[in-house]
Amino acid sequence: MGGKFASQGDMDEKAISFTEIGEGLYAFTAEGDPNSGVIIGDESVMVIEAQATPRLARKVVECIRSVTDKPISHLVLTHYHAVRVLGASAYDAREVIMSEAAHAMIHERGQEDWDSEFGRFPRLFQGHEEIPGLTFPTTTFRDRMSVYLGRRRVDILHPGRAHTAGDAVVWVPDSEVMFTGDIVEYQSACYCGDGYFADWGDTLEAIAAFEPSAIAPGRGAALIGEEMVEAALVNTFDFIDSTWRPVKRVAARGGTLKEAWEAVRAECDPKFAEYAIYEHCLPFNVARAWDEARGIAHPRIWTA
Description:
globular
């Protein structure tokens, strides 16, 4: 599982889409690159996910300015990963919101994650010289909080562990739309290096219980309509389960990590090999599943 990361050779510019998924609600997507979300309230704008650099964040701002001139007042970070948070300074938001668990992970492993992702995603970190440092929240919450953008209420919740220990989702009740971060993906591999395989399915069920009319996933196209939402939730669970089951089986019979790797490839390649960042994620996913299957509850800190 050594050698060059698959994503290091991906230097092609991605086509950006800015899709309305509800009244005043938008998904910023870019062919499997990290997504951002936009919520336009009566008085101001909330952005979900900052992007990897201020340079990339300004592309989100350009899209926002194509539909509104209201100020950006709030930035929600669904978790701590560098590709999601290091562009925060470009928004000049007065409030940066994150769960308490995600905030703790910045202190525990934020710099190591930045160093690791910088080496693995050279295209996303073009213009990295502008990053002022690690991004920290101004506001944290434990289980849930609500923000009012004028009359529009936005609920920010921690539905359970999945992609990380501190995942947050953003729910807009007036439109029944959810921004899920990397708990849900669409035609993109789930990165599970900081994940909790045994919990992920329950967290997906918690999201499904809201019965969203649309979802902006962490990567991939916007999911509009109940049928597309359900298909994405089922597919995300299948991806997680298709990694977790083979690894548990090999670990239970006293097999080796190499055997677990081969078992996951046999299960996942036929279904997911064409997904965005699949080859990139696979070594991390198998290694984390192997650790969890052998009782290592807290994900390791990834370094070079």
